[in-house]
């Protein structure tokens, strides 16, 4: 029988993705001893099956689309993309699914890594194999999410793709059905269509990207259709089978679609089903509600950071939360009771409520921060939407012929600040941080007039938006 070893730390972190790494970085910087537990690869979903590989697949697609809009360059990029080279570069971008570098980084900050499945066995106690880790101050759950598959008979035998297979596949399927209308569905449809698949995109709702302004999904769907994808909205999957290697999909409209692979991008669930939540009075498999310091409601020692708290399922927002949580854990460990937990305080994840930015790396890109017009109205704000055609901005012409894009700012008419901003068009991903600063900083429109955009850049859209507000 193996003897159990008990090791005491100030902080134990469950999950070594970007969120767990950042919690550990902040607690170690504060001088707290920290253990990090990981059952897969250090670096997590983002590094190996999400952000990094997906953007490695998409960057050549977007670069080619940009080049094809430019006279003089268009002729040089008329051939198909080299899919094998792109997939090889994607493999390099993920370090060939090896985590040596990230393990070295954890070692460099002085955190101890434990490989294996970590499970709470009571307050401040985590079991990993034959080791028991105890936490003097905090346990931080940073285990992220997993893809959810629909309840369709026989689906397991089909071998469907989730986001993991979509970002790590080593060959291009001739025909791909993508089910879903969110970010993963839109990005992966964009990538695989450009790499040579014939993509059919099945969207249950009215359109793509329904958490953004409606025009964002409309422009992305229009571009996907122009690229050759078959985009079908208001369509659900009734059954899926695989016969002699071919996937057969039957929709609720009676259509029969054949494909080589099928990707379901239909939602996420928290990875909390087998981490011992029941031993501390919480429901296994549940999202974990937290206060603005990321401490689990009703607990003095348990934190839930990143996707598991369901505030914003985005890597950058999870890393932001990790910095807040690390600071709060360190402050409480030092005996501080009066945390800076007010709006925009050092120990409050205020941006989760009003200023979450996101970029969708399709062609065209879609980027948004804060509230959409509908969300602002539902929240009770008296607002006005101000829209500008991005192609009217001089800098858009530098992106080539046929530029299509749109910008919207949602103006609070009582406070004359921005509640939200949305951009759609080539190159707009680099615009969103200026919008984030304006929304987070609650910059008055009268002050924004004096933030002069450089000419000729697409940032000049800020001037056009302000003029449209003034003249409306």
UniProtKB/TrEMBL annotation:
PANTHER family: DIHYDROLIPOYL DEHYDROGENASE, MITOCHONDRIAL, DISULFIDE OXIDOREDUCTASE. This is NAD(P)/FAD-dependent oxidoreductase. The keyword rRNA processing does not apply. Residues 9-316 form the FAD/NAD(P)-binding domain. Keywords: FAD, Flavoprotein, NAD. Its cofactor is FAD. Pfam families: Pyr_redox_2, Pyr_redox_dim. Coiled coil: none annotated. Residues 356-462 form the Pyridine nucleotide-disulphide oxidoreductase dimerisation domain. Belongs to the class-I pyridine nucleotide-disulfide oxidoreductase family. It comes from Streptomyces phaeoluteigriseus.
């Amino acid at each position: 029988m193996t003897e159990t070893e008990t090791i005491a730390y100030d902080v134990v972190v469950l999950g070594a993705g970007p969120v767990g790494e950042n919690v550990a970085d902040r607690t170690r910087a504060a001088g707290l001893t920290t253990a990090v537990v990981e059952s897969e690869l250090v670096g997590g979903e983002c590094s190996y099956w999400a952000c990094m590989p997906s953007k490695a697949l998409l960057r050549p697609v977007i670069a080619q689309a940009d080049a094809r809009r430019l006279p003089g360059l268009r002729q040089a990029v008329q051939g198909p993309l080299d899919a094998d080279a792109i997939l090889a570069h994607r493999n390099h971008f993920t370090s060939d699914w090896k985590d040596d570098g990230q393990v070295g980084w954890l070692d460099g900050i002085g955190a101890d890594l434990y490989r294996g499945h970590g499970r709470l066995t009571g307050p401040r106690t985590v079991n990993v194999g034959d080791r028991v880790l105890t936490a003097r101050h905090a346990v931080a759950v940073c285990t992220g999410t997993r893809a959810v598959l629909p309840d369709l008979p026989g689906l397991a035998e089909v071998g469907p793709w989730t986001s993991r297979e979509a970002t790590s596949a080593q060959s291009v399927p001739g025909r791909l059905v993508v089910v879903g209308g969110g970010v993963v569905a839109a990005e992966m449809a964009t990538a695989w269509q450009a790499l040579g698949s014939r993509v059919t995109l099945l969207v249950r709702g009215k359109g793509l990207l329904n958490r953004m302004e409606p025009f964002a999904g409309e422009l992305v769907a229009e571009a996907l259709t122009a690229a050759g994808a078959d985009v079908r909205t208001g369509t659900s999957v009734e059954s899926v089978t695989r016969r002699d290697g071919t996937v057969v999909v039957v929709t609720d409209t009676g259509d029969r679609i054949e494909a080589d692979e099928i990707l379901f991008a239909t939602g996420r669930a928290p990875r909390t089903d087998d981490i011992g939540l029941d031993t501390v009075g919480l429901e296994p498999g549940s999202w974990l509600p937290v206060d603005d310091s990321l401490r689990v409601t009703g607990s003095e020692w348990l934190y839930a950071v990143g996707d598991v708290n369901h505030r914003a399922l985005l890597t950058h927002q999870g890393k932001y939360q990790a910095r807040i949580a690390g600071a709060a854990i360190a402050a409480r460990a030092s005996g501080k009771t009066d945390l800076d937990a007010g709006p925009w305080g050092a120990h409050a994840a205020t941006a989760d409520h009003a200023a979450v930015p996101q970029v969708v790396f399709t062609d065209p890109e879609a980027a948004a921060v804060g509230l959409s017009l509908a969300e602002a109205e539902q929240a009770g704000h008296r607002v006005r939407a101000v829209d500008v055609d991005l192609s009217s901005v001089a800098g858009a012409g530098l992106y080539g012929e046929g530029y299509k894009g749109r910008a919207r700012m949602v103006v609070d008419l009582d406070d004359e600040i921005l509640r939200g901003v949305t951009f759609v068009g080539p190159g707009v991903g680099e615009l969103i941080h200026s919008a984030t600063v304006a929304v987070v900083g609650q910059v008055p429109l009268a002050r924004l007039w004096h933030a002069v955009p450089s000419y000729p850049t697409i940032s000049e859209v800020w001037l056009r938006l302000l003029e449209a507000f003034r003249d409306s």
